[in-house]
Amino acid sequence: MAPPRKLARQIHRALAPILALPLVVTVVTGSLYQIARLNDNFDYYWLIQIHKGQWGPLDLQAIYPFLNGLGLLVMVATGLSLWLQMRSHRPPRRTDS
Predict the structure, then answer these.
(1) Residue 82: phi, psi to the nearest 5?
(2) Could you say which DSSP state residue 59 is in?
(3) Which of 31, 73, 28, 26 is nearest to 53 (CA)?
(4) How confident is the model over 1-58, as pLDDT tens digits?
(5) pLDDT at site 28
(6) Residues in Cβ contact with 2 at an 8 Å cutoff, skipping those fewer than 6 apart
(7) Cβ-based neighbours of 78, under 8 Å, separated by 6 or more
(8) Residues with Cβ < 8 Å from 46, sequence gap 6 or more?
(9) What is the DSSP letter of 55?
(10) How many angstroms separate the CA atoms of 57 and 76, rounded?
(11) Nearest Cα to 86, choosing from 11, 9, 17?
(12) Which residue did the predictor score with more confidence, 96 or 17?
């Protein structure tokens, strides 16, 4: 079994490219939805459908938010773990007094 630092890095590296697209789609469509609501004449139903996880015949509305949230939590946990390990292995700063 790989050491914890290497395992966290492998998980983070494997999931980052997979999870980036759904997170970006969620952020962009959510932001555009808020902007579109300012314009009363704009039909934004399709935008909220994409935001919720329905892409044409592929309907993931029931699980998309949970998968998105779970993926984000895993990325935050592994990223924080890597960051804390990196800080603990850094040599102390020298102060000249």
Answers:
(1) -65, -40
(2) E
(3) 26
(4) 667 668 878 888 888 888 888 889 999 999 988 888 888 777 888 888 888 888 888 8
(5) 93
(6) 10
(7) 8, 9, 11, 12, 15
(8) none
(9) E
(10) 31
(11) 9
(12) 17
pLDDT of residue 89: 66
What distance in Å separates the CA atoms of residue 28 and residue 7, rounded to the nearest whole number?
31
- Write the CA distances from 90 to 8, 21, 46, 79, integer angstroms: 18, 33, 49, 17
* Model confidence, pTM: 0.68
Question: How many Å apart are CA 69 and CA 9, to the nearest integer?
Answer: 20
Map tokens 């996880």 to a residue: 53
